[in-house]
């Protein structure tokens, strides 16, 4: 079974105009009706750093998470955010961004890689106490634009360290959308074969003309956990190309249906969510 992780938080967080809380809640509750494995719905981070997510506590209080099987994931950047997140019963996963690039780690979380690993340990202990699970995203997993040291072996080493710390889910992030399809396939296979005890996911970014090839490369390589965002909204400002966005979830679904792989999704509710996405992100 391929786990589809829908990431409206990733799509929303970079928008300058604040989306009213009521609109976020309406959209997220619609997504909860679709049947995704996980919904990356919000983040507990500094409102100065990500003002769009400042209402996450108010949002989750209004989500209908009890009425379906979709699990909620919230992003945290430090222990303080994790301590907030674990207080909410509806949250299953805490996602933490760990970069293999020292430069990006500092820019993204104001920490060194060593300090970020210490935070992973602290969050892991907190998750164990509160019956949550940590998902660690390895940012810049396919290279970085800063000239920082990079290799496939380093990615495997990082993932192995995370496994030793008790982390069970690691997602490889093509943060700037630079990976070619064959690189996506190669690295996923390398990491998953080296660390079969871990659940390895992919969080990819791509230009519109690259989406189909990247989706095929990921899923044909055996990936069973993949992130997307309806209509491909969002992405990373570090990509230096406004066309580089998230993988459109509907393209992942299309690939699965063409391969006659059961999605388990409610297509009627999905179509409603797609229509709503165009209203939520009219100028994205």
The beta-strand count equals 9
CATH class call: Alpha Beta
Low-confidence stretches: none
CATH architecture classification = Alpha-Beta Barrel
Count of helical stretches: 11
**What's the overall average pLDDT, rounded?**
94
Strand order of the largest sheet: 8-1-2-3-4-5-6-7-9
Q: Residue share in helices?
A: 40-55%
Q: According to CATH, what is the topology?
A: TIM Barrel
Shape: globular
Structural domains: how many: 1
β-strand percent reads 15-25%
Q: Helices and strands, in N-to-C order?
A: EHHEHEHEHHEHEHEHEEHH
Query: Radius of gyration in whole Å, from Cα?
Result: 17 Å
> Mind summarizing the main beta sheet?
9 strands, mixed
CATH level-4 homologous superfamily = Aldolase class I
End-to-end CA span: 32 Å
Query: What structural class do the secondary elements suggest?
Result: alpha/beta
Task: Tell me what you see in this structure.
The longest helix has 18 residues, at 113-130. Helix 2 packs antiparallel against helix 11 (267-280), helix 7 runs parallel beside helix 8 (181-194) and helix 8 packs parallel to helix 9 (211-220). The protein has helices spanning 8-12, 21-32, 56-60, 79-85, 102-109, 113-130, 152-164, 181-194, 211-220, 249-258, 267-280; strands at 3-6, 38-44, 71-76, 91-99, 133-139, 169-174, 199-206, 225-228, 245-246. It has a single domain (3-280), classed as Aldolase class I (TIM Barrel). The radius of gyration is 17 Å and the shape is globular. It is of the alpha/beta class. Helix 3 links the parallel strand 2 (38-44) and strand 3 (71-76).
């Amino acid at each position: 079974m391929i786990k589809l992780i829908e990431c409206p938080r990733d799509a929303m967080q970079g928008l300058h105009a604040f989306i009213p809380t009521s609109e976020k809640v309406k959209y997220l509750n619609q997504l909860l009706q679709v049947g995704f494995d996980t919904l990356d719905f919000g983040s507990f981070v500094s409102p100065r750093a990500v003002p769009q997510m400042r209402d996450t506590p108010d949002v989750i209080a209004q989500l209908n998470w009890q009425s379906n099987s979709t699990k909620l994931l919230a992003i945290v950047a430090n222990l303080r955010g994790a301590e907030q997140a674990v207080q909410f019963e509806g949250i299953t996963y805490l996602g933490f961004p760990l970069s293999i690039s020292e430069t990006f780690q500092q820019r993204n979380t104001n920490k060194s890689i060593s300090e970020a690993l210490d935070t992973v340990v602290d969050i892991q202990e907190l998750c164990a106490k509160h019956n949550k699970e940590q998902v660690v995203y390895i940012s810049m997993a396919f290279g970085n634009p800063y000239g920082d040291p990079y290799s496939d072996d380093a990615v495997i080493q990082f993932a192995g360290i995370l496994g030793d710390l008790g982390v069970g889910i690691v997602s490889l992030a093509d943060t700037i959308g630079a990976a070619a399809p064959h690189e996506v396939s190669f690295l996923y296979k390398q990491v998953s074969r080296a660390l079969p005890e871990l659940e390895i996911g992919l969080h990819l970014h791509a230009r519109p003309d690259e989406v189909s090839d990247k989706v095929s490369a990921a899923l044909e390589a055996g990936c069973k956990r993949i992130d997307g965002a309806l209509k491909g909204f969002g992405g990373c400002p570090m990509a230096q190309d406004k066309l580089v966005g998230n993988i459109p979830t509907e393209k992942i679904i299309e690939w699965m249906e063409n391969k006659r792989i059961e999605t388990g999704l409610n297509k009627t509710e999905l179509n409603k969510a797609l229509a709503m996405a165009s209203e939520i992100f009219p100028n994205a």
